[in-house]
Fold this protein.
Amino acid sequence: MLISADEAVARLDRGDLVALPTETVYGLAGLALSPETVKKIFALKGRSSTNPLIIHLADLKSAEKLAVFNNLARQVCKVFWPGPLTIVLTKKTCVPNEITGGGNTVAIRSPLHPLFREILKTLGKPLAAPSANPSNRTSPTQASHIKELFGSDCPPTVDGGNCKFGLESTVLDLSAGKPRILRYGPITPEEIENVLSIPVQTPLPERLTNNQPSKSPGSEKLHYAPRTPFFLHQTIEEIRLNRPSSEDLLLLPQKSDLPKDMDWLSSRTLYFSFHGKPEEIAFNLYKTLIQADKRNAQRLLALLPNTNTELCLAIRDRMTRACNRNGSIAKN
Ligand code: TXA
Ligand code: MG
């Protein structure tokens, strides 16, 4: 059911859940400081209660009421808020343990989407909002995705059109002195270093080798996954070695990635972008995965974008963790 922003405020205020647009992906929102509401979010997503949620607020002033700020945090927030940057800081006691998964840090961000901001301002209370998808599934970047992902459990939704970035916010841990990226996203490590003038630690690109637990529980390996068996490849040659058939679906970064001799697969190919521009790939990534899942293919054979922009770190990270076969890039 689609609802207005005013209706969303009324429902949120009485402790109900509502799906809201943000500039990154749609969020499943509820009152952040209400343990009862936070429990409803975990239940609807089927998410482990130890995987903490992000608190969304209107501005730095409201954020300082919930978290212990330091100078590094103030500097990045002044530049990147409102926007797709989440920071992790030591929590203040008013933040319920339910939302932090029992931990003593809290993740906060001030979103940019005008509808989300309007709702925050009218409501006057912070909102918890994980991505509006059942746990481990692809994040929604348009209102119709939420219905497709949740079916009859779909929460009432405010339609804010397509999400501008299409990838979840960058998560930056500033709780322990040294800045550390916990999740790649639209704000790149370089942009943060330029503001802080000190090095920012980054996770291993693509996390292909790790078996060690992550500091950010939501960054575990399998995530964002389509239901169809999804294989990831570094080159088109690797896809060829996988002997694609007309039962498969190819997912390619751009139009020119389909070689002439594979033209017979053109009706079985979806593209993340026309020219391979990273912003466009990011914008279309989840939309294309959700669309691909509806085609009843035997396998999704996807090619990683090979540009070296920092935004591609986030794209490659999400694609790698969406890979639900063997948990790694297909070798052949
Ligand atoms: O763009 C976004 O961030 C979207 C929109 C809706 O704002 N939200 C989102 O939330 O992606 P979620 O819950 O799907 O992902 C939040 C990530 C998870 O990986 C979680 O483990 C991590 O942030 N996180 C939350 N609180 C944390 C904390 N205190 N310490 C470390 N990681 C934390
Ligand atoms: Mg999520």
User: Anything to note?
Assistant: The CA atoms of residues 76 and 192 lie 7 Å apart.
